[in-house]
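Support reply, case 0932

Customer input (verbatim):
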Amino acid sequence: MKALLLHEPNTWRSMRLEDVNIPTLRASEVLIEGEYAGLNPVDYKTATNGNPNWSYPHILGLDVAGTIKAVADDVTDVRIGDRVLYHGNWNEWGGYAEYTRAKAHMVVPIPDGVSTKEAAALPTAGFTAYQAIFEKLPMNAIDTVLIHAGAGGVGGFAIQLAKSLGKRVITTASARNHKWVKQLGADEAIDYNTEDWQQRVMELTDGHGVNAVIDPVGRETAIASLHVIAYNGHLVHIAGAPEPGIIKPFTRVISYHEVALNAIHHQQDRISEANIVRIGSHMLHLLEAKEISSMIQETIAFADVPKKLVELSERHVVGKIIADLKA
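Our regenerated output:
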């Protein structure tokens, strides 16, 4: 099969299509013929330093959508010919390949009303946003949420999900992307390049602060966000936790929540792994009902993935980029 091969750490910019053997199925696995793969920042981030669990060459790519072409003898819940969505384990070979193997009980059937390409946009960014909104935050007790990097994948899905619950959404984004994030549902957008976003958040909330912050950016942003969270509020950190003790105990009583989607794959138990299917099924239902958008802004040829990962690393990308594995 054709695949983009990473031959050693930090060589992701120069990956090219090469021939490699199709993965051999193990017990309880299926073989997916990939049709589309989603690009995510985690691809270049993990590839830069490598992973001690990898052997080289390695194949990147966590978001795969395609058709089941083979099943292990013990697989009964899915069948050859089923269209499925899969979020991959970054310790395994990924989706930048013509074929990918997956645990059968972790693939998500794609409903008839959703295209395979649209489905490929969901897993890493969409499922992460879903965990933040539906599994970490007590949304019934939240009126206003600040979502950082609203023009990106996680931020864009989080805006849509929070707005679907009727919440007031403030987001940070470059001025050129304000129209985009407001189309997704943001009520207010702050240009973090030219504005003091902390000051603006406090102005927009009449000095009260927000009930919750979702931060997919990094530790420094998470730390800065602590100062705009109201009493009894929440911080969801996705790319780095703030150091403990910044907010003194018995003052604002802030709750901290970590989201790390790939950790599901490390649990090695069916109950935890089943969460992927539950999340994916709900997200696909929301997409089919047109309650959320897949946010696809560009569809690229398979061989162009490295070039587009460079653009992702330079933060020049809005929404989602999808690779057509047949092009």
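We compared this against your earlier run and they match. Two observations from our side: The chain has nine helices and 15 strands. The longest helix spans residues 270-288. Please reopen the case if you see a mismatch on your end.
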